[in-house]
Amino acid sequence: MSDAASFPHPSAWDAQTYADDFSFVAASARDLIEWLGPQSGEKILDLGCGTGALSATIAESGAVVEGVDQDASMLALAAREHPGIAFRQADGQALRVDAPLDAVFSNAALHWMPDQDAVVRSVAAALRPGGRFVAEMGGKRNIAAILAPLRAAMAEAGVPVAQQPQPWVFPSPAEQASRLEAQGFEVRRLAYFDRPSPFEGGMDGMRGWLQMFARAFSAVCPADRWEQVVRAVEDGARDQLFDGERWVGDYVRLRFLAQRV
Ligand code: BEZ
Q1: Are the CB atoms for 137 and 109 separated by under 8 Å?
Q2: Is 48 in the pocket of ligand 1 (CB under 6 A)?
Q3: For residue 82, which of 104, 54, 106 has the smallest C-alpha distance?
Q4: pLDDT of 134-183, one tens digit each?
Q5: Fold for the domain defined by 15-141+168-200+251-260
Q6: Distance in Å, CA 108 to ligand 1 centroid
Q7: What residues does each domain of the chain span?
Q8: 88-96: which pairs have CB atoms within 8 A and are 24 or more residues apart?
């Protein structure tokens, strides 16, 4: 079984804070497991498993689950919390498996992988014919009400839009369906929908969200300007996303069940 020492790469994530304050990410996608329909004995890979919460739920079906993620601290926490499940470090854009899988599952992870064609190609190669790829990710217009003031404030802080990071890919339903079909999948189900997502932390919820998820931006922002960027995002998004008590992120989900031909 894996432990922290098995994941030597530096970590970009604060896994414990993610588990404590962002558990809504896994909780809101539990019904995605109904799309997966795991069966006892099936070999299922959870791609971008994070702290392993959904890997553990899938394993309750009797399926043999392996969780993979790129992040060392997420994997270390997953291994501690779910000692009966195998976890390993891997890049979804270049998966390697010992034997063909029955299914690949993924929640809120694919949009962090820049080469989406490579992801779909590597998942196709990992599946047996008839195997399922079931995933949910951010879709087109995801977090638009956060990104617009974030990009504007970063420019104001001295980082022009052209030099700002592009940490996420949020495809439209048509783009993702074409990508899947091009790699030999049949798209059996697809849904594209808004999921307003309340952040923990009351008035400080947007600040906490930015601290957890927008590190690519804070990393290139002059340190003495980051506070100004956070406040500008709060000001720019308040009318749309603050309900008087908490921040509610404008998440847009793209969910699919695709079968390898
Ligand atoms: C998402 O799950 O849609 C998401 C979370 C953090 C940053 C970007 C997107």
Answers
A1: yes
A2: no
A3: 54
A4: 999 999 999 999 999 999 999 999 999 999 999 999 999 999 999 999 99
A5: Rossmann fold (3.40.50)
A6: 7
A7: 15-141+168-200+251-260
A8: 88/2, 88/6, 89/6, 89/7, 89/9, 92/47, 92/48, 92/68, 92/119, 92/122, 92/123, 93/118, 93/119, 93/122, 94/118, 94/122, 95/45, 95/47, 95/68, 95/122, 95/123, 95/125, 95/126, 96/126
| Per-residue model confidence as pLDDT tens digits over 66-110 | 999 999 999 999 999 999 999 999 999 999 999 999 999 999 999
Nearest atom within ligand 1 for CA of residue 138:
3
The Cα 143–Cα 41 span in angstroms is: 38
Name the strand (E) or helix (H) holding 154. Answer: helix 144-156
107 C-beta closer than 6 A to ligand 1: no
pTM above 0.85, yes or no: yes
In Å, the largest CA–CA distance within the chain is 55
